[in-house]
From TrEMBL:
This is Coiled-coil domain-containing protein 12. GO terms for molecular function: structural constituent of cuticle. Keywords: Cuticle, Signal. InterPro entries: Insect_cuticle, mRNA_splic_Cwf18-like. PANTHER family: COILED-COIL DOMAIN-CONTAINING PROTEIN 12 (PTHR31551:SF1), PRE-MRNA-SPLICING FACTOR CWF18 (PTHR31551). GO terms for cellular component: post-mRNA release spliceosomal complex; U2-type spliceosomal complex. It comes from the Eukaryota. It comes from Amphibalanus amphitrite (Striped barnacle). Residues 1-31 form the signal peptide.
């Protein structure tokens, strides 16, 4: 009887009800399938003056350490592994200046694909640089010498280069 009431409700039909039930069932399964993460180590201490420190590290790379002094200043750090697999470390302090954090990404591994993509461009840049240097040398020779001397200078430079190869 209650189902017939829902099916008579405007905008709500049995197909939609079936989808909602299925969605709820999937959500329940996903909620139960999350795995517990083991704590690898843990420490805690506190005293009556308000000083404390604690820390833990878990098997999934998550960790946190925090210390509070007599003056109420708190400092610590936490770390986790982000979606890209990078280890993110955040150091922080909290006190009279408020909460201040500094995120530090661990160094990334070299991206060899990027290096392969850049290699042809770097070679092209090297060739262009060498041509530009040669053109500057030619311009100086033209400016400083007569045209006959220019040909002799180029031949002399070529001969010196041939001697170096041997």
């Amino acid at each position: 009887m209650e189902l017939s009431y829902l099916s008579r409700t405007p905008g709500l039909n049995t197909t939609m009800i079936g989808k909602l039930v299925l969605l709820g069932a999937i959500g329940a399964v996903l909620a139960q399938s999350s795995q517990d993460v083991a704590i690898l180590n843990e420490s805690r201490s506190a005293d009556v003056s308000g000083k404390y420190d604690f820390g833990f590290a878990s098997e999934d790379g998550t960790a946190r350490v925090e210390t509070a002094g007599d003056d109420g200043e708190v400092s610590g750090q936490y770390q986790y592994v982000d979606a890209d697999g990078q280890n993110v470390v955040v150091k922080y302090t909290a006190g009279k200046n408020g909460f201040q954090d500094i995120a530090q990404l661990a160094p990334r591994k070299p991206d060899w694909d990027l290096k392969r993509d850049l290699a042809p461009r770097l070679e092209r840049l090297e060739r262009r640089t060498q041509r530009a240097i040669a053109e500057l040398i030619r311009q100086r020779l033209r400016r400083d010498q007569r045209p006959d001397d220019l040909v002799d200078a180029v031949h002399a430079a070529a001969a010196d280069g041939d001697d170096d190869d041997e």
